[in-house]
Amino acid sequence: MGERGPRKRLALDANVPLDLAADLDFAHDFCQDFQARGYSLLLAPTAAEEIFLIHRNAQHPQQRLATKALRDLTMWGVKLLELKAHLQPVAKSIGRRFAESLIRAGHLPPSEVNDGIILAEAVLEEIPVLVTRDKHLLDIEDLDLLVCLQAADLAPVKPVHPRLLWKAIR
Fold first, then answer.
1. Which contiguous run of DSSP H or E holds residue 167?
2. Is 10 helix (H, G, I), strand (E, B) or coil?
3. Nearest CA-CA partner of 83 in 124, 47, 118
4. How far apart are CA 148 and CA 139, in angstroms?
5. What confidence tens digit (pLDDT) does each residue in 73-109 have?
6. How far, in Å, CA of 170 to CA of 162, rounded?
């Protein structure tokens, strides 16, 4: 049997399914176009947890969108990123340490620990791109992020806005 080529996968932050739930055209166009090109769209575990917490919080302004996002993920072709079994017990720990290093370096505010964990989850599954609209992640300079990733012995990952990524393939 022949060797398969590299898998085309993109990790998603929580805001992508929330944008889909809000019926934002760019989010649907992004997903449809990348899926048509053979990409798997994978929601990072911590991003899924964030959506679930919004869904459970009746006072959260985005609760309705979170509920729709959870209900319609499979309809949109978005799958949950399942960490390799041997990584599951340590993934949160690695992610939390990485997030803390980003916070100490001044690249993330202390309230954004999950952002660092989500980046680490993508790295641990060897996905080089995290699709996000999160300004905290997008504002980290490439070189600063690379230095922090290397210091943590993690492979490179690049946070990219879905509109920029979508424009790049058009």
1. helix 162-169
2. strand
3. 124
4. 14
5. 999 999 999 887 666 778 888 999 999 999 999 999 9
6. 12
- Give the predicted TM-score (pTM) of the model: 0.91
* Dihedral angle sign, alpha carbons of residues 152, 102, 117, 4: negative
Buried b / exposed e along 70-91 (16+ C-beta atoms within 10 A): eeebeebebeebebeeeeeeeb
Q: Give the dihedral sign, CA 32/121/113/152.
A: negative
Report the chain's terminal Cα–Cα distance, integer Å.
34
Q: Any alpha helices (H) in 8-161, and if so which ranges? A: 15-21, 25-36, 45-56, 63-72, 88-104, 113-124, 135-138, 142-151
CB count within 10 Å of CB 34 equals 20
